[in-house]
Amino acid sequence: MTKKQTLACFSSWVLAAGLWAQAPSPTPIPDFAALAGSSNLAYERLSYLCDRIGPRPAWSPAYARAASWAAEIMKQDGLENVRLQPVEVPVWERGSARLLMLQPTQRELPVLALGGSVGTPGVEAPVVVVRSLDEVGPQVQGAIVLYAFPMSKPQDYGAGSRIRSQGASRAAAFGAKAMLLRSLATASLATPHTGMLHYEEGKPQIPAAAISQEDADWIARLVSSGVIPVLRLELGCKTGGKTLAHNVIGEIPGEKRPEEIVLLGAHLDSWDVGQGAHDDGAGSVHVLEAMRLLKLAGVRPSRTVRAVLFANEEFGIDGGKAYAREFGAQKHIAAIESDMGGFLPAAWSINAPPQLMGWLWPLLATTSLSARPGWGGADISPLASQSVPLIGLAPDPTHYFDYHHTNADTLDKVNPEHLQAGALALARLAWVLANAPEVK
């Protein structure tokens, strides 16, 4: 997409906001686009994070390098109170993975272990195909269960992720030997998508992995035709106790109400496949670039704007939980998160107490993006217990789940102009909230 097309598309969303865009701003908003100019710094920083550091599970040396790098960036950009907050995280190593079809034909299939899976030197069994948790029953005894959940649009991800999370324990309760999942994706080129599972405490643990949509559909067709495939799954996964990672925190202290905080957040960790470009390298760079632009404005906001790059969203939201434990009692006016990729911004997704919506709604109207009730974000979700308004940047979702949690989530999938547009949206909203009238 050209720059002219990008701006035209962005403008169409502004117009679609209708009366939202007519609401007056509480204070003049700096021209952040002019401050950014023709700089390509956001994309250059994402390039460094993806190409030089690479995939960065929270327990890995790569994550430690990413945290040190991000802290140094914050210092270079003039942020204050830059620090690393310790976060205890679990250690899990993927190891090797191999999936073989033994009958009715012999073939090796692409496969990725689900995060947290136990390993296996090899389990062979016939396949039973189901499409939901409720379909699992005594028929899976001694089988490899394939959850062939038919995700076709982004809105299906919530239901699919529940199957990914709970499916292994559900199948194990009925004597299954292993679990396979049709990858949660909106498009596929024979690419498996990983993601986290949860084992129920005290229940048997069976190996679990994701396969491509194409292979899952092939297996389902065979079963429908009366042919029962036999598979062999080998996983070298290992769990290794706990280690320390860090949230990365930096601030622009407020001029008039420094004790009141507007939080900008994203998660710095990624899965160990791909480069974590959209998930969530783009969000991390959104936060860094928004803070840089706020600093370049040359005027302190009334309230403190705090950047937090969280550890271990992918494997337990440990960074978000640790932040809430240590800082949740502070007065957070709002928390904003970017964790839906570096695509062109489309809206704000709001999860806020009803009594604060009358204050918040007109402020959102000044940002040139529409708003809708929804999900604020995983890392900031632990602040909900403190009645903090949670706001998620919601970019165009069309292609996010094409790459999500795969080897294909790489830098080349990110459009530099779309990435910059997301940073500008965060800077604008942070400014509006940090300078808004007193919370009613």
TrEMBL record:
Q: Give the subcellular location.
A: Endoplasmic reticulum; Golgi apparatus; Lysosome; Secreted
A single GO BP annotation from the record? proteolysis
Domain Peptidase M28 span(s) in chain numbering:
247-427
InterPro entries of this UniProt entry?
A: CPQ, Peptidase_M28
Does the keyword Hydrolase belong to this entry?
yes
Q: Which UniProt keywords apply?
A: Carboxypeptidase, Endoplasmic reticulum, Glycoprotein, Golgi apparatus, Hydrolase, Lysosome, Metal-binding, Metalloprotease, Protease, Secreted, Signal, Zinc, Zymogen
- One of this protein's Pfam families, by short name? Peptidase_M28
Annotated signal sequence range: 1-16
Going by the entry's taxonomy, the superkingdom of the source organism is recorded as Bacteria
Cellular component, GO annotation:
extracellular region; lysosome
Q: Which GO terms describe its molecular function?
A: carboxypeptidase activity; metal ion binding; metallodipeptidase activity
Asked whether the keyword Protease is assigned, the reply is: yes
Q: Supply the PANTHER family for this chain.
A: CARBOXYPEPTIDASE Q, PROTEASE FAMILY M28 PLASMA GLUTAMATE CARBOXYPEPTIDASE-RELATED
Assembly and interaction partners: Homodimer. The monomeric form is inactive while the homodimer is active.
Protein name, entry field = Carboxypeptidase Q
Q: From what organism does this protein derive?
A: Thermoanaerobaculum aquaticum
Organismal lineage: Bacteria, Pseudomonadati, Acidobacteriota, Thermoanaerobaculia, Thermoanaerobaculales
